[in-house]
Design goal:
By secondary structure, this protein is an alpha/beta fold. It has ten helices and 14 strands.
């Protein structure tokens, strides 16, 4: 009798879990992907030879199994592979195209995939694209993105910073602004609320100290934080000034949380430059995990 009750409980738990909104990682690399164009160094050499080691640019799917809707975060240069991958792993349960695409900013890894929706490729119809005001204006005013708008391949939906957007009864998304190299648009981060779990997504930011909010406090408010890990240390680009591409180094983020053991486990580093050993070194991943942190990996599910 007791065994039967336990089995019933487990079955009901799995059933509930299967209906819970979730996030699935579709890419973890920095804008240039992995391996990186022109790189023949040890960090990329093996990946050029072994296709299974290659990594797509940062993206994830937000999925609501009840409404059978899903949303894509970031339109990367790898979007066609990522859409195919999601369709395959979900066994075509959801529409091939998402119910909307959320874009953080106008750097190549985060919006250029939208061109695949144009008439030269998919020829989509009114796919909602969610972005803050400057990013929306950039898409509307600059080709070839403006053609996507005029031909109704995409439909721009303006987000207001810090104002929640309700997608379904179970899913809510809030955009907010972070400091980054904003040559063409502002840069957004996102908070996602699925009722029982809260997520934070900041793939790009200049430095935590430049942000008006405290990253430690923000991580304390969520269950999972996907944060910028472009570079591990300042020595990764010996022939280039790091001031040109400011990001919070992984070692700096570690220091921010060195005495916050309860928060470390919520952090999943993502957006790895090809030089970052967390992208290709199992040894470095192990060391980081022993410190209490996590590394985001393609296919990983947060439910």
């Amino acid at each position: 009798m007791r065994v039967s009750l336990i089995l019933c409980f487990l079955i009901s738990l799995l059933s509930v879990n299967a209906q819970t909104p979730y996030i699935q990682i579709l890419g973890v690399a920095q804008d240039g992907g992995y391996p990186h164009i022109g790189c023949e160094k040890s960090c990329c050499a093996t990946a050029w030879q072994k296709s299974e080691l290659r990594q797509w640019v940062v993206s994830f799917a937000l999925v609501d199994p009840v409404s059978l809707k899903w949303w894509l975060f970031e339109a990367t240069p790898d979007i066609k592979e990522q859409l195919h991958y999601f369709n395959s792993i979900t066994e075509s349960r959801y529409n091939f195209l998402p119910s909307g695409i959320f874009v953080t900013h106008a750097h190549m890894g985060h919006y250029t995939g939208l061109m695949q929706l144009g008439r030269e490729a998919l020829g989509s119809k009114a796919v909602p694209v969610y972005a803050l005001d400057k990013m929306s204006k950039f898409l509307e005013s600059n080709g070839p993105w403006s053609q996507l708008v005029s031909l109704n391949n995409i439909s721009i939906h303006r987000l207001i910073s810090d104002q929640p957007l309700t997608l379904t009864s179970a899913v809510q998304v809030t955009a907010f602004i972070v400091p980054h190299r904003d040559e063409f648009s502002e840069t957004a981060g996102f908070k996602i609320d699925t009722g029982d779990r809260k997520y934070l997504f900041i793939p790009d930011i200049d430095k935590w100290e430049k942000w008006s909010k405290c990253i430690v406090d923000e991580v304390a408010l969520v269950d999972v934080a996907l944060v910028d890990a472009t570079f591990y240390t300042a020595t990764e680009l010996p022939n280039r000034s790091m001031a040109e591409v400011p990001h919070p180094l992984v070692v700096e983020t570690i220091k921010q949380f060195e005495d916050k053991n309860d928060l470390k486990k919520r952090i999943y580093f993502i957006h790895f430059n090809h030089t970052n050993p967390l992208l290709w070194s199992d040894v470095e991943k192990k060391v980081l995990k022993e410190k209490g942190f996590n590394v985001a990996e393609t296919g990983m599910i947060f439910r």
